[in-house]
């Protein structure tokens, strides 16, 4: 899988998980959604994405 698509899929899953946690566990899980959004925003400008680095090290994506 290409890096960009893998990151989009991972971010989408994490946002859904954080929304479900916010609804069913605690409203404080909202901050996970905020963190994901901020991370995606900064990655768009800097090109630095910790999730991509971790996925590469785990062998989940290859460039």
Structure description:
With 63 residues, this protein is mainly alpha-helical. It has one domain. Helix 1 runs antiparallel to helix 2. The longest helix has 22 residues. The mean pLDDT is 93.
Topology:
Layout: H1 3-24, H2 30-46, H3 50-57
The radius of gyration is 13 Å
Gap between N and C termini: 8 Å
- Biggest sheet: strands, sense, closure? none
Strand-pairing-aware structural class: mainly alpha
By DSSP, the count of extended strands is 0
Mean pLDDT: 93
Element order, helices and strands?
Answer: HHH
Q: Give the domain tally.
A: 1
The gross shape turns out to be: globular
* SS element count, helices: 3
Q: Could you provide a short overview of the structure?
A:
With 63 residues, this protein is mostly helical.
Feature tags:
63 residues; mainly alpha
């Amino acid at each position: 899988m290409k890096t960009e698509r893998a990151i989009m899929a991972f971010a989408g899953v994490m946002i859904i998980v954080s929304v479900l946690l916010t609804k069913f566990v605690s409203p404080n899980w909202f901050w996970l959604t905020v963190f994901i959004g901020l991370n995606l925003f900064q990655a768009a400008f800097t090109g630095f994405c910790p999730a991509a680095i971790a996925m590469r090290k785990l062998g989940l994506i290859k460039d």
